[in-house]
Amino acid sequence: MSEFDLIARYFAALGPERPDVVLGVGDDCALLEVPPGQRLAVSIDTLVSGVHFFADCNPEHIGHKALAVGLSDLAAMGAEPAWATLALTLPAPEEDWIRAFTLGLGRLANVHGMHVVGGDTTRGPLSVTVQVHGLVPKGAAIRRSGARPGDAVFVSGTLGDAGLALRRMLSGEPVAPELRHRLECPAPRVALGRQLRGIATAMIDLSDGLAGDLGHILTASGVGADLELERLPLTPQVAAVVAATNDWSLPLTAGDDYELCFCVPPAHIATIGPLAETLGLPLTRVGWIRAGAGLAARAADGGRRTLPARGYDHFPAAVDGAD
């Protein structure tokens, strides 16, 4: 099929119709209506074969994850998903692959009321770029820079599952289906992000590991934090690895969790338990914001360790001291 046949058949009607889409796929630009009193939240992510997913990954899962990572960014700002654009680079126009890919992307778009309004297809090494657009009431966006000493640090869900799946896949070990699902089909916490408007002082999604992503909040807010390692929410599989090795890198630095880390002032801490019950999602206090700088962790025996406030980096070679 030609590029235009592909667009017409698979990409022209992804996601539900929305009244704020004046013009969608099929012209040089989409025309979108931003409602009065709303601000536009925009984020973009690229997934590359061999870097973000294995070459033999189910294309339905690739489509899901390509949109999920952007939805997670919107969730971290407390934004409501609205529109997306897609740039897809394909080695060849294999219809079975494209059909499965659009099934995964379209299903998640429908769940969150997001309409795909445009994009581009081209030939080359497999990569997927999705730009997401969301709406948040003026003054209601939750940024990284609002954390204050005395705030409690919470995380949603569990940590380290995706990292454990990736570790085992790379080493050729068997991987439990639920762990692989966490890696390839993360669940963006969009409803939680909306509910935390007016409650959380700062928030970020956990794409690069708790230590690194919380570190971004600390830097932006000009504060420090203490984590309580024994309070980190772990599945039995991750807890078993930590217990056997005393290595906390899975929940702290492995990344790809796509949970939310957020800070809550003392006056609102009591609201988090009922919110967790309403959403059916564990929300766990894992530490406290303090004055000063840096990220430290306290073990169950009272011992403290300083953590590097850095997560996954695509270009890890430091430029400091370079010729």
TrEMBL record:
Binding site for ATP: G119, D120, R144, S207
Residue ranges of every copy of the PurM-like N-terminal domain listed in the record: 26-136
Keyword Magnesium: yes
EC category name: transferase
Molecular-function GO term, any one: ATP binding
Chain residues that bind Mg(2+) 3: D28, D73, D205
Domain PurM-like C-terminal residues, every copy: 148-296
GO BP field: thiamine biosynthetic process; thiamine diphosphate biosynthetic process
Binding site for Mg(2+) 2: D45, D73
Alphabetized InterPro entries for the sequence: PurM-like_C_dom, PurM-like_C_sf, PurM-like_N, PurM-like_N_sf, ThiL-like
Sites where the protein binds Mg(2+) 1: D45, D120
UniProt: Mg(2+) 5 binding residues: D208
Pathway(s): Cofactor biosynthesis; thiamine diphosphate biosynthesis; thiamine diphosphate from thiamine phosphate: step 1/1
Binding of Mg(2+) 4, residues: D28, S43, D73
Recorded catalytic activity of this chain's protein: thiamine phosphate + ATP = thiamine diphosphate + ADP
Keywords: ATP-binding, Kinase, Magnesium, Metal-binding, Nucleotide-binding, Thiamine biosynthesis, Transferase
EC number in record: 2.7.4.16
Pfam families: AIRS (PF00586), AIRS_C (PF02769)
Positions contributing to substrate binding: H52, D256, Y312
Family under the similarity heading: Belongs to the thiamine-monophosphate kinase family.
Additional facts recorded: Reaction mechanism of ThiL seems to utilize a direct, inline transfer of the gamma-phosphate of ATP to TMP rather than a phosphorylated enzyme intermediate.
Function: Catalyzes the ATP-dependent phosphorylation of thiamine-monophosphate (TMP) to form thiamine-pyrophosphate (TPP), the active form of vitamin B1.
The protein's name: Thiamine-monophosphate kinase
